[in-house]
Every structure is written in structure tokens, then in C-alpha cells.
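Please annotate the following for my students:
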Amino acid sequence: MRKILLLAALAAAAFGQSSPNAGNWKTWILPDAKAIAVPPPPDAAATLRELAGLKGFTAADDPRIGEQIKYWDAGPPAYRWVDFITARFLAGQPIGAPNQLRPYTYVSVAIYEATVVAWNAKYTYNRKRPSETDPSLRTRAAVPRSPSYPSEHAAAAGAAAAVLAYFLPAESAALQALAEEAGRSRLYAGVEYVSDYTAGLELGRRVAEQVIARARADGSDAVFNGVIPTGPCMWTGVNPGNVMAAQWKPFLLSSPREFRPPPPPGCQSADVQAQLAAVKSFPRALDSAGFATNAKAFFWQTPEGVTPWPFIYMNRLIHEDKLDAPAAARAYALLATANYDAWIASQDGKFTYWYLRPAQLDTTLIPLFPAPNFPSYPSNHSTVSSVSAAVIAYLFPASADAVRARAKEAGDSRIWAGIHYEMDNQAGVTLGQSVARKFIAWAEADGSQP
């Protein structure tokens, strides 16, 4: 038990809070942090009564409590909720059709907005932490370096659980219980009052209402009833995946077509025929020439390689840099929204040009695995990996070279697998970088700079 509590205290110390100006940061959906009113905390007399009651939480001796403190203190408040989505995805239980970037985006944005609202209230009311009022209070985690009211953990939990319940309505009760556990862990740790917890949960839920309203109106429920075009160089198939995503509402782009790639060359042109030949001749035999690239191509087709790898990658960097709650929430939201808009833009390109896959142009080409059921140009992998690398490099400059190399491998892997042309890859890279520049410009003006 002591070991668990020591680990929890060390984790909390690593993620000590500060960022006093975070309550003024620009928001994605709310007009600003004051759009959600947070009432004042209890007065001094009520606070003393709460303090007496809090000692019952800190005295509770149950191994499960120590495990909960350790679990929710393993990183900043956003960490466990973003990782919840990743864990479900990797376990083959994806959250919310038709694309996994939607839950990542709306949950991350909800946590960010709730954190900004919480920080605005914290530095409006400046309520002391319980142990600042009573230094004899036994705490089971390091005391965060920010005002106590409202709880950032409860705010993030209330927002995340409510948005996840929008995607997983059958699990609403379980998600609510998880949110309450996350918030209560701070009571058992002795670093927040009960009223901090209840106010945090309430503001998180109110933020979630606004985020869910945006999700309901983003166009993702539209049904395709169009006609698949036919003709030379056109993709052939039925029920094309993601076809309506080209019409979804982006977060920052003026429209899905803002950075639309130029038209690809004709499939019988010398350029495309040369690219086709390069794809077809790439070594894929199980020998020394092809084994390494085959293995990498298969990885980038796994669940981790398709969607969550940037979030997994950034988890490590958030821990290494010991980002506090607002900075971590900002990082997750920036990565998720940039991914979301880039992915929408990629679908716009695909379903503007409807370009055929290499194995449709030359039926003797045998790829490592079947191509996804949608057009070829531009490459989704290249687009999303490129935008992810640019955003992560902006947030964590020391890791820029490493993450860019990772993104390049993701894009190249689709050629190694035989399912894309080089022009798909290059168009995706250019598209992703264009989207990233717009998001980074937004971030440079979001008020988070010193």
C-alpha cells in the first residue's frame, strides 16, 4: 500500500499544475472560458466543515483506493481518457462509426474546453488547497500547484465521459461511474474538497453538452445516395468507404476543399505508368530484400498504424516533458482537430477525382494486402501522418526529426505494400503539411505563449 501511495505522489509531483493564464486560452467550440459560469466555492465556514469531512476520505484504508489514486495520477487528467479510446480501438472495440478520429477529436476538445473553463474559475476564486488550510492533513498525492476549485480531474472526467456516452450510449452508466471514480480519487488523495469535485463534474458535463451539439451537426450521419462515376482511370467498386466524409464540417479549414490537391495525371500517361512500374517492381518476396519493408507495411496496416499511433507517440512525449493539465489538454486537442480536418480534406481529394488503385490499373500486380475500399489519390496515411508529424514537431521540437521519420515511413509503407502510387503519397504529404500550417498558426495565437 505504501509503495502505491509513494508512486502516486511521485506521479502527481511530476505533473504539478501551474499555467495561471490558461483560463484565457482560445477555445475551439465555446465562445470563451466564461461561457460556462462556475458559481463561487463555499464560504470559509463551509470550507472548514468540508475539511473535516475530507479527513474521512484520506483515512480510508482500502487497497483499491490506492490503486485508483495511482491510476488517475499516472499523467495529466486528459491522459487516461484519450488512452481509453486507444485501448478500445486496439482491442477491436472501436468507438463510434464511421471513423475513429471523431471520438478522439470530440473527447479531446471537450477535455480542453473543460480545462480552460476550470482554470478560469480557479484563478478567479483562488481557493487554497485543503493542505494549505490545514498543513496537518494527510495527503496521498503531491499537492498540485494551482488553486483547488474547481477540480480539473473532475472537469476532464465529466466532459470526457459525457462525450464518450454520446458515442457509446449503452455504456453511459459505466462511463458516468468511471468519471465519478476519477474525480473521487482526488478526494481520497486529499488534494481537493468535495465541492471542488462536484463543481468540476458539473462544468465538465455542461461543456460536453456544447461539444455534443457540435458533433450532432457535423454532417457525419449523412448517407451516400450518389452515383459512382465511371470512365478511364476511375476507381471501381461498391459502397466506397468514407465517401460522405468529404462533406463533414471541419474545425478550422474554411471547407474540405481549401487545400485540395491538383488533379492527378491520366493513368495512361508516361508519368503514371512509370510510377505503376515502380510499385509493381518493389521487392515483396519473403527474402532479405523484401522482409523488412513487408514487416513495416504490415505494421502500418494494423489498428495501431491506421489511426492511434500519433496519440500513442504523443503520450510518451507528454510524460517525458511533464506537461501540466492545460498544456496536455491543449496538445491532445490540437493533434486531434488537425488530424480530423486533414482526414476530411483527404476524402475531399479522393472523392473529387475517384482515381483508381494500382492493382486496378494493372490486375497482374499483387499487393501485400487488399487496398482499402475507396479511391487512391491522395493517400490517407500520408495525409494524416504528415499533419500529425508537423503538429507533434511543433509541440515537442526536440522530437521533430524522429516523428517526421515515423510519418515518412507510414506514407512510404503504402507503396511498399503495393496499394498506392508515389503521387498519392506526395499529394498526401503536401496536403497534411498545408493543414498543419493552418493549425499551428491558430495555436501560435491561442494565448498559451508566455
In short: The chain has 18 helices and no strands. Residues 325-353 form the longest helix (29 residues). The mean pLDDT is 94. The two ends are 40 Å apart (CA to CA).
